[in-house]
Write a structure and sequence with these properties.
Layout: H1 25-33, H2 40-51, H3 61-68, H4 72-81, H5 87-97, H6 111-129, H7 134-145, E1 149-152, H8 158-168, E2 175-178, H9 185-194, E3 199-204, H10 210-221, E4 225-230, E5 243-246, H11 259-274, H12 279-293
Protein backbone atom coordinates (compact mmCIF):
# COMPACT_ATOMS: atom_id res chain seq x y z
CA UNK A 1 0.00 0.00 0.00
CA UNK A 2 2.95 2.31 0.65
CA UNK A 3 4.13 4.47 -2.20
CA UNK A 4 7.67 4.27 -0.82
CA UNK A 5 8.39 0.62 -0.12
CA UNK A 6 10.50 -2.18 -1.63
CA UNK A 7 12.68 -5.09 -0.53
CA UNK A 8 15.20 -5.67 -3.31
CA UNK A 9 18.95 -5.32 -2.83
CA UNK A 10 22.20 -7.16 -2.42
CA UNK A 11 23.62 -9.41 0.26
CA UNK A 12 25.89 -6.92 2.02
CA UNK A 13 26.03 -6.68 5.79
CA UNK A 14 26.98 -3.82 8.04
CA UNK A 15 30.30 -2.58 6.71
CA UNK A 16 30.06 -5.38 4.11
CA UNK A 17 29.62 -8.10 6.72
CA UNK A 18 27.62 -9.13 9.75
CA UNK A 19 28.35 -6.97 12.80
CA UNK A 20 31.32 -8.29 14.75
CA UNK A 21 30.48 -9.36 18.27
CA UNK A 22 26.73 -9.13 17.73
CA UNK A 23 25.18 -12.51 18.50
CA UNK A 24 21.61 -11.53 17.78
CA UNK A 25 19.25 -13.72 15.71
CA UNK A 26 19.39 -11.15 12.91
CA UNK A 27 23.20 -11.14 12.93
CA UNK A 28 23.31 -14.94 12.75
CA UNK A 29 20.96 -14.91 9.78
CA UNK A 30 23.02 -12.20 8.11
CA UNK A 31 26.15 -14.32 8.52
CA UNK A 32 24.35 -17.28 6.92
CA UNK A 33 23.60 -15.24 3.80
CA UNK A 34 27.10 -13.77 3.41
CA UNK A 35 29.05 -15.02 0.40
CA UNK A 36 26.01 -16.20 -1.56
CA UNK A 37 24.95 -14.57 -4.81
CA UNK A 38 21.20 -14.25 -4.47
CA UNK A 39 18.57 -13.33 -7.03
CA UNK A 40 16.31 -10.32 -6.36
CA UNK A 41 13.55 -12.68 -5.19
CA UNK A 42 15.98 -14.51 -2.89
CA UNK A 43 17.23 -11.21 -1.50
CA UNK A 44 13.63 -10.32 -0.74
CA UNK A 45 13.25 -13.56 1.23
CA UNK A 46 16.52 -12.92 3.06
CA UNK A 47 15.42 -9.39 3.94
CA UNK A 48 12.14 -10.69 5.35
CA UNK A 49 13.98 -13.33 7.38
CA UNK A 50 16.34 -10.78 8.92
CA UNK A 51 13.43 -8.53 9.87
CA UNK A 52 11.59 -11.41 11.53
CA UNK A 53 14.68 -13.26 12.77
CA UNK A 54 13.11 -14.43 16.04
CA UNK A 55 10.16 -16.03 14.22
CA UNK A 56 11.85 -17.62 11.21
CA UNK A 57 12.81 -20.98 12.79
CA UNK A 58 9.12 -21.51 13.54
CA UNK A 59 7.67 -20.53 10.14
CA UNK A 60 6.64 -22.98 7.46
CA UNK A 61 7.77 -22.42 3.88
CA UNK A 62 4.25 -21.25 3.04
CA UNK A 63 4.27 -18.76 5.93
CA UNK A 64 7.69 -17.44 4.94
CA UNK A 65 6.53 -17.11 1.32
CA UNK A 66 3.53 -15.07 2.46
CA UNK A 67 5.74 -12.92 4.67
CA UNK A 68 8.12 -12.16 1.81
CA UNK A 69 5.42 -11.88 -0.85
CA UNK A 70 6.89 -14.66 -3.02
CA UNK A 71 5.86 -18.15 -4.08
CA UNK A 72 6.46 -21.24 -1.94
CA UNK A 73 8.77 -22.81 -4.60
CA UNK A 74 10.87 -19.63 -4.40
CA UNK A 75 11.46 -20.31 -0.71
CA UNK A 76 12.57 -23.86 -1.53
CA UNK A 77 14.97 -22.61 -4.22
CA UNK A 78 16.30 -20.05 -1.76
CA UNK A 79 17.14 -22.78 0.78
CA UNK A 80 18.89 -24.79 -1.94
CA UNK A 81 20.87 -21.71 -2.98
CA UNK A 82 22.17 -21.53 0.60
CA UNK A 83 23.39 -25.14 0.36
CA UNK A 84 20.52 -27.00 2.04
CA UNK A 85 18.47 -29.89 0.65
CA UNK A 86 15.32 -27.83 1.07
CA UNK A 87 13.52 -25.47 3.39
CA UNK A 88 12.96 -28.06 6.17
CA UNK A 89 16.74 -28.56 6.34
CA UNK A 90 17.31 -24.80 6.53
CA UNK A 91 14.73 -24.40 9.29
CA UNK A 92 16.21 -27.34 11.19
CA UNK A 93 19.66 -25.75 10.91
CA UNK A 94 18.32 -22.47 12.31
CA UNK A 95 16.73 -24.24 15.26
CA UNK A 96 19.95 -26.15 16.00
CA UNK A 97 22.41 -23.27 15.80
CA UNK A 98 20.17 -20.58 17.23
CA UNK A 99 17.46 -22.04 19.44
CA UNK A 100 15.05 -19.31 20.44
CA UNK A 101 11.50 -18.74 21.51
CA UNK A 102 8.87 -17.31 19.17
CA UNK A 103 8.32 -13.57 19.42
CA UNK A 104 5.63 -12.37 21.78
CA UNK A 105 2.10 -12.53 20.40
CA UNK A 106 0.85 -9.06 19.50
CA UNK A 107 -2.42 -10.27 18.02
CA UNK A 108 -4.45 -8.42 20.65
CA UNK A 109 -2.99 -5.04 19.62
CA UNK A 110 -4.80 -2.78 17.18
CA UNK A 111 -3.05 -1.74 13.97
CA UNK A 112 -1.66 1.45 15.48
CA UNK A 113 -0.18 -0.37 18.46
CA UNK A 114 1.27 -3.03 16.17
CA UNK A 115 3.02 -0.31 14.18
CA UNK A 116 4.57 1.08 17.36
CA UNK A 117 5.60 -2.39 18.53
CA UNK A 118 7.23 -3.03 15.16
CA UNK A 119 9.23 0.18 15.47
CA UNK A 120 10.30 -0.79 18.98
CA UNK A 121 11.57 -4.06 17.55
CA UNK A 122 13.44 -2.17 14.82
CA UNK A 123 15.13 -0.08 17.51
CA UNK A 124 16.06 -3.21 19.47
CA UNK A 125 17.61 -4.65 16.33
CA UNK A 126 19.56 -1.43 15.79
CA UNK A 127 20.85 -1.62 19.37
CA UNK A 128 22.06 -5.16 18.69
CA UNK A 129 23.84 -4.04 15.52
CA UNK A 130 25.53 -1.19 17.43
CA UNK A 131 27.00 -3.70 19.89
CA UNK A 132 29.99 -3.41 17.59
CA UNK A 133 30.60 0.35 17.33
CA UNK A 134 33.48 0.09 14.85
CA UNK A 135 31.49 0.57 11.60
CA UNK A 136 29.79 3.70 12.95
CA UNK A 137 33.08 4.99 14.33
CA UNK A 138 34.70 4.42 10.93
CA UNK A 139 31.84 6.28 9.26
CA UNK A 140 32.25 9.14 11.74
CA UNK A 141 35.93 9.47 10.84
CA UNK A 142 35.20 9.45 7.11
CA UNK A 143 32.45 12.05 7.36
CA UNK A 144 34.22 14.39 9.76
CA UNK A 145 37.32 14.42 7.53
CA UNK A 146 35.41 15.36 4.37
CA UNK A 147 35.48 19.12 3.72
CA UNK A 148 32.90 19.79 2.35
CA UNK A 149 30.53 16.99 3.33
CA UNK A 150 27.70 16.29 0.84
CA UNK A 151 24.60 14.67 2.37
CA UNK A 152 22.22 13.00 -0.07
CA UNK A 153 18.58 12.02 0.45
CA UNK A 154 15.86 12.00 -2.18
CA UNK A 155 12.08 11.51 -1.95
CA UNK A 156 11.23 9.52 1.21
CA UNK A 157 14.77 9.97 2.53
CA UNK A 158 14.89 13.73 2.00
CA UNK A 159 13.72 14.49 5.53
CA UNK A 160 16.37 12.20 7.01
CA UNK A 161 19.10 13.95 5.03
CA UNK A 162 17.74 17.38 5.97
CA UNK A 163 17.63 16.54 9.68
CA UNK A 164 21.18 15.21 9.63
CA UNK A 165 22.51 18.17 7.65
CA UNK A 166 20.76 20.66 9.96
CA UNK A 167 22.55 19.37 13.05
CA UNK A 168 25.82 18.47 11.31
CA UNK A 169 26.19 22.07 10.15
CA UNK A 170 26.48 23.14 13.79
CA UNK A 171 29.71 21.15 14.25
CA UNK A 172 31.06 20.63 10.69
CA UNK A 173 32.39 23.65 8.78
CA UNK A 174 30.86 22.81 5.38
CA UNK A 175 27.81 20.56 4.97
CA UNK A 176 26.08 20.48 1.60
CA UNK A 177 22.55 19.08 1.46
CA UNK A 178 21.53 17.26 -1.71
CA UNK A 179 17.81 16.62 -1.29
CA UNK A 180 16.45 17.60 -4.69
CA UNK A 181 17.13 15.42 -7.71
CA UNK A 182 17.47 16.49 -11.31
CA UNK A 183 20.18 17.18 -13.83
CA UNK A 184 22.15 19.48 -11.52
CA UNK A 185 22.86 16.92 -8.82
CA UNK A 186 25.97 15.66 -10.63
CA UNK A 187 27.15 19.27 -10.98
CA UNK A 188 26.83 19.71 -7.21
CA UNK A 189 28.83 16.54 -6.60
CA UNK A 190 31.51 17.77 -9.00
CA UNK A 191 31.62 21.08 -7.13
CA UNK A 192 31.97 19.30 -3.80
CA UNK A 193 34.82 17.14 -5.11
CA UNK A 194 36.59 20.18 -6.56
CA UNK A 195 36.25 21.89 -3.18
CA UNK A 196 37.96 18.96 -1.46
CA UNK A 197 35.19 16.51 -0.51
CA UNK A 198 36.36 12.96 0.15
CA UNK A 199 33.16 11.28 1.35
CA UNK A 200 29.41 11.45 0.84
CA UNK A 201 26.66 10.42 3.25
CA UNK A 202 23.48 9.01 1.75
CA UNK A 203 20.15 8.22 3.37
CA UNK A 204 18.33 5.65 1.24
CA UNK A 205 14.81 4.48 2.09
CA UNK A 206 12.16 2.52 0.18
CA UNK A 207 11.04 2.77 -2.44
CA UNK A 208 14.57 3.34 -3.68
CA UNK A 209 14.64 5.89 -6.52
CA UNK A 210 16.76 4.87 -9.47
CA UNK A 211 18.27 8.35 -9.35
CA UNK A 212 19.83 7.60 -5.95
CA UNK A 213 21.63 4.53 -7.30
CA UNK A 214 22.78 6.50 -10.34
CA UNK A 215 23.95 9.39 -8.17
CA UNK A 216 25.94 7.13 -5.84
CA UNK A 217 27.53 5.44 -8.86
CA UNK A 218 28.56 8.87 -10.13
CA UNK A 219 29.87 9.89 -6.70
CA UNK A 220 32.07 6.79 -6.48
CA UNK A 221 33.38 7.38 -10.00
CA UNK A 222 34.21 10.93 -8.90
CA UNK A 223 36.37 9.51 -6.11
CA UNK A 224 34.07 9.92 -3.11
CA UNK A 225 33.78 7.28 -0.39
CA UNK A 226 30.06 6.52 -0.04
CA UNK A 227 28.60 5.94 3.43
CA UNK A 228 24.95 4.91 3.30
CA UNK A 229 22.22 4.57 5.89
CA UNK A 230 19.64 2.23 4.34
CA UNK A 231 16.62 0.28 5.45
CA UNK A 232 18.34 -3.05 4.82
CA UNK A 233 21.71 -4.59 4.09
CA UNK A 234 19.98 -5.95 0.99
CA UNK A 235 18.92 -2.56 -0.37
CA UNK A 236 19.75 -1.73 -4.01
CA UNK A 237 22.21 0.96 -2.86
CA UNK A 238 24.44 -1.63 -1.16
CA UNK A 239 26.30 -2.38 -4.38
CA UNK A 240 27.26 1.29 -4.80
CA UNK A 241 28.14 1.94 -1.14
CA UNK A 242 31.57 1.59 0.47
CA UNK A 243 30.10 1.38 3.97
CA UNK A 244 26.44 0.51 4.52
CA UNK A 245 24.75 0.94 7.89
CA UNK A 246 21.34 -0.77 8.04
CA UNK A 247 18.36 0.45 10.06
CA UNK A 248 14.98 -1.10 9.33
CA UNK A 249 11.83 0.85 8.52
CA UNK A 250 8.34 0.01 9.74
CA UNK A 251 5.89 -1.17 7.09
CA UNK A 252 2.72 -1.69 9.12
CA UNK A 253 1.04 1.58 8.15
CA UNK A 254 0.05 3.05 4.79
CA UNK A 255 3.38 4.90 4.69
CA UNK A 256 6.67 3.53 6.00
CA UNK A 257 7.99 4.76 9.35
CA UNK A 258 11.69 5.45 9.82
CA UNK A 259 12.50 5.82 13.53
CA UNK A 260 15.57 3.57 13.36
CA UNK A 261 17.21 5.34 10.36
CA UNK A 262 16.65 8.69 12.09
CA UNK A 263 18.24 7.45 15.30
CA UNK A 264 21.16 5.94 13.39
CA UNK A 265 21.67 9.34 11.80
CA UNK A 266 21.95 10.89 15.26
CA UNK A 267 24.40 8.17 16.28
CA UNK A 268 26.49 9.07 13.24
CA UNK A 269 26.41 12.71 14.33
CA UNK A 270 27.76 11.67 17.72
CA UNK A 271 30.55 9.69 16.06
CA UNK A 272 31.38 12.71 13.90
CA UNK A 273 31.56 14.95 16.95
CA UNK A 274 34.04 12.54 18.52
CA UNK A 275 36.34 13.16 15.55
CA UNK A 276 35.84 16.92 15.30
CA UNK A 277 38.08 18.47 17.98
CA UNK A 278 36.30 21.82 17.83
CA UNK A 279 32.76 20.40 17.86
CA UNK A 280 32.06 21.38 21.46
CA UNK A 281 33.44 24.88 20.93
CA UNK A 282 31.22 25.34 17.87
CA UNK A 283 28.15 24.24 19.84
CA UNK A 284 28.94 26.62 22.68
CA UNK A 285 29.48 29.46 20.21
CA UNK A 286 26.13 28.76 18.61
CA UNK A 287 24.40 28.73 22.00
CA UNK A 288 25.97 32.05 22.87
CA UNK A 289 24.84 33.67 19.59
CA UNK A 290 21.37 32.17 19.97
CA UNK A 291 21.06 33.68 23.46
CA UNK A 292 22.09 37.12 22.20
CA UNK A 293 19.54 36.93 19.37
CA UNK A 294 16.81 35.56 21.59
CA UNK A 295 16.47 32.78 19.08
CA UNK A 296 14.65 30.29 21.30
CA UNK A 297 11.78 30.64 23.74
CA UNK A 298 13.02 29.37 27.09
Amino acid sequence: MSADRTTSGTAHGLSHGAPHGADSPAARLQALFEGHRLTPTQRRIAHSMVRRAADVPFLSSVELAELAGVSQPSVTRFAVALGFDGYPALRRHLREVAPMEPAADTGSYNEYQQAVEAEIENLRHLAEVLADPRPVQKAGRLLSASRPLPVLGLRAAASQAYGFAYFAAKVHPDVRLLHEGGTMIHDRIDAAVQAGATALLCFALPRHPREVVDTLTYAKEAGLTVVTVADSAFAPVAKVSDLLLPAAVGTGLAFDTACAPMLLGRVLLEAMCDDLPDAQARLEEFDARAAVRGLFVE
